[in-house]
Design goal:
- Helix content is 52%, strand content 0%.
- The protein is mainly α.
- It folds into 2 domains: 24-123, Fumarate Reductase Iron-sulfur Protein, Chain B, domain 2 (Orthogonal Bundle); 132-249, no CATH class.
């Protein structure tokens, strides 16, 4: 009889220790959330292990990162390897999808990594919290003003990932903004004015699509702040609607 083989990893844990890194059921739950995503079967079709994805990957040239490794871990259902990659490696991907364009098998490592990132957020992994923490001020700015960025955020102490030249930013922002002829731009707290209705609609979209739920998992304090802001904006919007109704009735 021929021996039976499988591509699926069956052993969990350190081979020289009886103690697993994590309970198998927890690893299976994380992988199950990745596998049941509607995009998973479309993005993963198999792997020739040719390495074209890694050879053409910009991130692979600068980080300890390999799209081929990600595909192999998922294809072989290496539960520990997938979990380990979600601690750091998946955050190195630039989402340029060069890998998807070049893969002869039609895989999309970038698409798979996007799924893994969303699952990392869902499970509140520390890696997701660490990566997304710098963006908390952007989310707060967006929900409170309707703008992702504002001039007063462009300071030497922020956005160090923009490179060394950010440390050279030293400009009289208030003076420069005042020189802009449009009245709405004479402020450094926001890039432009967004009306109340748009702010409430934006928050509602986040709420209905689960973004706020994910945010609560990653940063509960920021979630509480944003919720308080939007409760106040919703009350202000309701008051405005009531005023408009009263004016129409007169």
């Amino acid at each position: 009889m021929h021996g039976t083989t499988t591509r699926i990893q069956e052993f969990i844990g350190d081979p020289v220790s009886d103690a697993p890194v994590m309970p198998r059921e927890d690893l299976e739950e994380i992988f199950g959330d990745i596998q049941k995503d509607l995009r998973f079967d479309h993005e993963l079709n198999g792997c020739l292990n040719c390495g074209i994805c890694t050879a053409t990957c910009p991130a692979a040239h600068y980080y300890d990162f390999s799209p081929r490794e990600i595909v192999q871990l998922l294809w072989t259902e290496n539960l520990e390897g997938v979990y380990d990659a979600m601690q750091e490696k998946i955050w190195s991907c630039a989402q340029c999808y060069t890998c998807a364009a070049r893969c002869p098998f039609g895989n999309s490592p970038g698409g798979l990594i996007m799924i893994m990132r969303e699952v990392a957020i869902k499970h509140g992994m520390q890696s997701a919290k660490d990566v997304l923490r710098p963006f908390s001020r952007v989310m707060l700015k967006l929900i409170s003003t309707g703008n992702q960025l504002a001039p007063n955020m462009i300071t030497p102490d922020h956005f160090r990932d923009w490179g060394p030249n950010i440390s050279k930013v030293d400009a009289p922002l208030k003076l420069l903004r005042a020189a802009i002829p449009m009245p709405t731009l004479n402020t450094i707290e926001t890039a432009w004015e967004v009306n109340l209705k748009t702010s409430v609609e934006l928050y509602t979209i986040w709420e209905m699509t689960g973004v706020l739920g994910q945010l609560e998992t990653i940063d509960e304090n920021l979630f509480d702040v944003i919720t308080d802001i939007m409760d106040e904006k919703r009350d202000d919007y309701d008051d405005w609607l009531e005023d408009q109704k009263d004016q129409d009735d007169e």
